[in-house]
Write a structure and sequence with these properties.
With 252 residues, the chain is α/β, with parallel strands linked by helices. The protein has a single domain, classed as 3-Layer(aba) Sandwich (Rossmann fold), CATH 3.40.50.150. Strands 3-2-1-4-5-7-6 form a seven-stranded mixed sheet, sandwiched between helices. The protein is globular, with a radius of gyration of 18 Å.
Length: 252
Amino acid sequence: MPRDIELTSEDYAYRLPDHWLLSEESIWTQMHHAYVGRVVELVKASGARRVLELGCGDGWNCGKLAEAGLEVVGVDWSHNAIEHARRMVPNGRFVCGDVRDPAVAVQIGGPFDAVVFIEVIEHIPPRDCRDALGLIARQLKPGGTLVLTTPSVNFPNDNPQHYRHFDEATLRDLIDSRTGFRVEHIEGYGDVPAEERYYRVARFIDNRYWLIKPARRWLQARYRRQISNPTQQRCHGFIVVARRLADDGSLD
């Protein structure tokens, strides 16, 4: 799909609750669980109690936030995704719609202590990213926390639903006082060279002809040690923590 075509809710059908059906044998699943777990840690450390996830999809991330004892609201423009989320996370609250719609913004019921934006900004046309962050700021209390994750330019963008991948400089340029935020911390997740090494070796022990389970377990355990806090030159993606500025530019 050309990157100049704007995606719609029809591009995200969610016929199944995909994130709930991920194979535990996949290193992608391990990485996904690791960065979502880190997001939950960061939200808890911020002292937040009420959390909004924008672009919540089928609710898997909201489920982890709810398990951590947080009051969670999820928003997505895919009707199927929200129906899955309501079934899978009965102790969450979910709203179907576009947050740019004032009626949806009212229904969400903010402002919140924290907003999470997990693997979403890469799905937004670059010309609209700054406006999207401004909308997020309006859903946060002054001093509230934004935790955002997104793929790195180290990982090739061959996903037709991703407009672009990011480097740290681009993220810092986007998430600043012009959109109502101050970046506090950026860290990496995943390790692209380690992933490439994994797949080069894995094809000899896990293929259409045979599977050597002890060797695969050893290989996966080796990769798990490299998921967190890689260097910027190696990371698969970024986790950004930012605080919502007050109207006068302060954090309070």
